[in-house]
């Protein structure tokens, strides 16, 4: 049986969905999937508690630029530093813990912009594990097709290729059913916000999900990277639907950021006023951000209900986890008694 370490939540979820729980010997820290006896192999690059989106962005840039210097502190060997700083683009990896787990497969995300190339990372991991060749699956898709392909690749590597094919076919059918449903003739324009400071519109798989749901994504086409925009550009496009899916933030965290920024941004206040009836906030820890097949199809399901303005009717395909908090809210529901002319009070 292949021993698998998953350094990213989407990889862990995919393995569990494929029925490979027993293969998992290590996971990323803070995972919502509680697996008895399985060690955490990563840690956060910095403490995000209480930070604004602008502060988080600044610290993340510093962590990327100074990562190798930090990794070499204390005279660490080069392979140890490379594994610690570059094996996963999202988190720091604990080399000693990873080595103790003796993995056959590592599921991770290695960004193409990282200082070290993928071959260097392969060398570092092989050296750390005393010459053992480990299969590294770079779970970094830009489209649904790539997500399906990577899911089948994981199934192949752990020895269940047929189960992987069946699983992917099932979700491909569910996704196509979303696209095939009857919708209104007018296609609404949709903007999905990935981050607020700096302001980024979601790219990669999200515009594709919007298309499946019956909407027209603004600023980014399917497969394109996320794009920096301004609030003025947002207002000029005058979107029919605005969705805040702020990477890694809960609904509460997202609403707090909206409250904070609207106090200093007349353009955001203008957007909130114009799109008052069609503003949504999602828990991006559990929708959109993690590119596992099941999470993205769930996200498309929610988008379909948003496009039809029937969000209260949506039922998820499967329970995401034991958490009982909502996955999304329609922002006006927070202030349903406030007249439209006073709509800005909703984030006061």
TrEMBL record:
Gene3D superfamilies: Nitrogenase molybdenum iron protein domain
Record SUPFAM superfamilies: Helical backbone' metal receptor (SSF53807)
TM spans (from-to): none
Domain Fe/B12 periplasmic-binding: 3-311
Name by which UniProt lists this protein: Fe/B12 periplasmic-binding domain-containing protein
């Amino acid at each position: 049986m292949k021993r698998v370490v998953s350094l990213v939540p989407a990889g862990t979820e995919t393995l569990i969905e494929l029925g490979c729980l027993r293969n998992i010997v290590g996971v990323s820290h803070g995972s919502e999937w509680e697996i008895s006896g399985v060690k955490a192999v990563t840690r956060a690059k910095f403490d995000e508690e209480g930070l604004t989106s602008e502060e988080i962005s600044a610290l993340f840039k510093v962590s990327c630029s100074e990562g190798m210097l930090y990794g070499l502190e204390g005279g660490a060997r080069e392979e140890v530093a490379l594994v610690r700083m570059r094996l996963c683009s999202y988190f720091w990896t604990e080399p000693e813990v990873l080595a103790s787990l003796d993995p056959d497969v590592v599921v991770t995300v290695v960004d193409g912009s990282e200082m070290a190339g993928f071959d260097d990372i392969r060398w570092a991991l092989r050296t750390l594990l005393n010459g053992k060749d480990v299969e590294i699956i770079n779970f970094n898709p830009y489209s649904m097709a790539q997500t399906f392909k990577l899911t089948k690749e994981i199934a192949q590597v752990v020895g269940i290729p047929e189960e992987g094919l069946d699983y992917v076919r099932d979700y491909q059918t569910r996704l196509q059913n979303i696209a095939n449903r009857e919708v209104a003739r007018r296609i609404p324009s949709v903007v999905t916000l990935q981050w607020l400071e700096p302001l980024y519109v979601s790219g990669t798989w999200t515009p594709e999900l919007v298309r499946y749901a019956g909407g027209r994504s603004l600023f980014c086409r399917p497969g394109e990277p996320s794009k920096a925009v301004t609030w003025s550009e947002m207002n000029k496009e005058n979107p029919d639907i605005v969705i805040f899916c702020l990477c890694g933030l809960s609904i509460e965290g997202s609403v707090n950021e909206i409250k904070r920024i609207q106090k200093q941004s007349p353009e955001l206040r203008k957007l909130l006023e114009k799109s008052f009836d069609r503003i949504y906030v999602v828990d991006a820890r559990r929708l959109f951000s993690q590119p596992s097949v099941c999470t993205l199809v769930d996200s498309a399901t929610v988008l379909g209900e948003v496009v039809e303005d029937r969000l209260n009717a949506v039922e998820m395909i499967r329970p995401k986890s034991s958490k009982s908090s909502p996955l999304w809210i329609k922002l006006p529901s927070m202030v349903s008694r406030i007249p439209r002319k006073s709509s800005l009070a909703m984030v006061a």
